[in-house]
Amino acid sequence: MTELLHPFLTRRGFLGSSVAALGAGAFPGGALAQAARYRYRRYEISDPGMPPRVRDSYKKAIAAMLKLPPTDPRNWYRNAFVHVFDCPHRNWWFLAWHRAYVGWFERTCRELSGDQDFALPYWDWTKAPRVPASMFEDVLDPNDAAFIASFGTFRTGLETAVDALWSTFSQQQKAVLAQRGLNSTADFWDAAQQMFFDRPNARGLTTASPDLDTFTKGKVAIGVIRSALRTPTFAGSAGEIDPAGFASSKVADHNQGSAEGILESQPHDNVHGAMGGTAGLAFMVSFLSPVDPIFFLHHGNLDRLWDVWTRRQAKLGRPTLPEGADLAAWSDEQFLFFSDEKGQPVSKTKAGDYAAMSVFDYDYAPGSGEEEVPALVASATPAGVPPQRFGARITSSAVGAGEPAGGVAEVPATALRTSAPEAPSLVAEVALELGPAEEGRRFRVLVSSPGGANPIEAGAITVFGHHAHAGPTTFTVPLPENLASTAAAASAGGNVPLDIRLVPLEPAGGPPRRAAAAAVGHAGAPRVTAINVRTG
Questions:
Q1: Nearest C-alpha neighbor of 273 from the set 343, 212, 186, 358
Q2: pLDDT tens digits, 171-219
Q3: What range defines the domain where residue 24 resides?
Q4: Of 163, 281, 355, 386, which sits with the fewest C-beta atoms within 10 Å of its C-beta?
Q5: Vertex 289, ends 6 and 5: CA angle to 5°?
Q6: Is 362 in the same domain as 402?
Q7: Distance from first CA to last CA of the chain, Å, rounded?
């Protein structure tokens, strides 16, 4: 059965590393020039310095993959299936798995385009919060005639290949699929029907309306990116004691999920959701999101930010990966579905194989957030102030039941004051009990402090559907940068009551095509089960 799969696979839905030295110098836009560390350089898609052949080679590779038979693992849709089968979210393998996925895809593009210098571009949505104009050209847009037009044609053309593929899966692979509710090809097609979008709805944003909505623009703004980059640890525990961490939370295996860090919870989830457009219908809102070529540019930027965070950590004398027994557990996790540029299973099957960009011999032209990397190496890890966590008293738990759900956290004014420019951001950790009926919903997170005439929009939650693990899912939302000083001033020496609320943007149930998913599992409104404010 696929009760776990349908919700787990929708996004709107939701929706020791070595560090090489940097070269310094002027760079347009205020970032520092960065000396190339590896052979292949990934440029920002709108960078005038990007060689024009990069777009042409990307088009050529996509066209070739679309023409490959569905028995070839490099076929465009077969490659997207890997994301359905194995992609981790809400856990500490989120970044490593996507680095591997994008890296092997890049090598396939290099092979099929014939451009041996090809490197994928990335989309810096902080700098340019709109779909790059060139991504509407030809096969860079999934609404192009070269893509399969309807689910019926899709199933007819790939069903025999999927049957053959299923027969080749090892017991270990089948165990991974079973965790996602994929116990048979029937389960797969049942789920795929919920994830496939007929033309002209393959991408929700258009040449006439290419901008991310105002709601999403705030979640990719530099303040949010700065908050993510200042996260001091790679991953926290799945419990309430530790923050989620830059790469989200620590769990037992990559098919589980618990808590999302700022990077995953804010820019990742919300850009995926925004790409569905006003109707919330497009490939980027589902786990077949790699059907849209912009997927790889989106995840390239997330991978770039991981590199920025890694270099920042190293300059501050902090760990760049889990440590001790955690490093072994993280490194040994198996990724079993990747194919190389020849269509053969890869030999690098462990998460630790993808801890550094050197595995694919690439780096990035500088982009947003680069200014967060200190110029000088710290002699030792700064002592800092131990993180503090303050639980809120939940005053209304059911979202949409007459009033915004949420509660009030009493935070000492002294805990809100910080003078360290590199200090982690003040965040709210919002735990939600979700079900299939919440598939396709987004929520505003509002915060009020003493003396505030109106609530301030702090962040957003784009639901990734009902989650495949038991219990609530925690989303990390950075609170406004000026909130701490304002609130502390209003309650000098005492406690500051921070009132944090969730307001849904869309009604329950999601798009009509997913009504069946909403009819199973958790009933009623989503519930706020806990809110914590974390400082330091």
A1: 212
A2: 999 999 999 999 999 999 999 998 999 999 999 999 999 999 998 999 9
A3: 16-372
A4: 386
A5: 15
A6: no
A7: 44
